Amino acid sequence: MSLKKSFRFAIKLSVRNYCVQTPFKKPPKILITGGLGQLGVECAKYLRGKYGKNNVILSDIIKPSTEIFNDGPYIFADILDFKGLQKIVVDHRVDWLIHFSALLSAIGEQNVPLAVRVNIEGMHNVMELAKQYNLRIFVPSTIGAFGPDSPRNPTPNVTIQRPRTIYGVSKVHAELLGEYYHYKFGLDFRCLRFPGVISSDPPGGGTTDYAIAIFHEVLRKGHYDCYLKPDTRLPMMHVKDALRALSEYLEAPNESLNRRVYNVTAMSFTPEELAKEMFKYVSGLTISYRPDSRQDIADSWPEVFDDSEARRDWNWKPEVDMGDLVKLMLKEVKEKIDSNGF
């Protein structure tokens, strides 16, 4: 093949794939969608500490606080606007995409058409975007990707799923589409099924968020009215472990990964067990139980998550146990309440 023809072929190949894959000689440029949700802000802080402030771009469709805006790059990004996403990837030379945009379980059930648009159509856009530009893409999944027909204690990595919420259905769809894109197109798709993730940020509408709300309510009012039964066991982890799992998994070499989707967890507990641990540090707290529609969702989810494959393949190991979690949350939520003046 002549030099001229080789050059023309290379140009065509580059245009078709939208970029040329090269090994990372410098820190990756990372775009986080849905950045003002439960994990986005903390994830940006964590990754900026590893890769540099300007290498992690937080994005959402909501106006950020001054603190978030000043903390590092923040841009407007609508996941339903494909051409807008293309422009962001090209303008900012994005290498990795972390896709957090989603309506959570309880909120999604209240507005199914919107959940379909955000959780499914939006996910289609970022998946195609990652394929076109050869991005490494991370899409979180959840214990909500399982249903009442799944084994609940323990729930293995591969088993029947069949969830009964639009949130769960959308996550199973994301898992399967991502695996298809990996095997069909070579997309570097990565997905972790998270348990309930507990942080000091206010609850965002998830079924496991009682484990966040209880700290806010108890420290403000001394009482919490729980929407789940006292013996409802669910898998959980502190946000520090969740972000560490995400980061370690993103950095894991492809040859060590036997799957593209992994369960990860740290512990399992009930509302009653959590309250009992809190009693050690907060005197006089009271808790009542008034189960609502979220109980039906929780009853279809895993009680104990089996994450042995993640531990085997990329050495996942949680660091925050239940005692540590309670101490961290009491400290962090109190600081947040004090800083907000109420």
From TrEMBL:
Transmembrane segments: none annotated. Residues 30-264 form the NAD-dependent epimerase/dehydratase domain. It comes from the Eukaryota. It catalyses: L-threonine + NAD(+) = (2S)-2-amino-3-oxobutanoate + NADH + H(+). GO terms for biological process: L-threonine catabolic process. Pathway: Amino-acid degradation; L-threonine degradation via oxydo-reductase pathway; glycine from L-threonine: step 1/2. Its EC number is 1.1.1.103. Pfam families: Epimerase. GO terms for molecular function: L-threonine 3-dehydrogenase activity. Belongs to the NAD(P)-dependent epimerase/dehydratase family. Catalyzes the NAD(+)-dependent oxidation of L-threonine to 2-amino-3-ketobutyrate, mediating L-threonine catabolism. This is L-threonine 3-dehydrogenase, mitochondrial. The lineage of its organism: Eukaryota, Metazoa, Ecdysozoa, Arthropoda, Hexapoda.
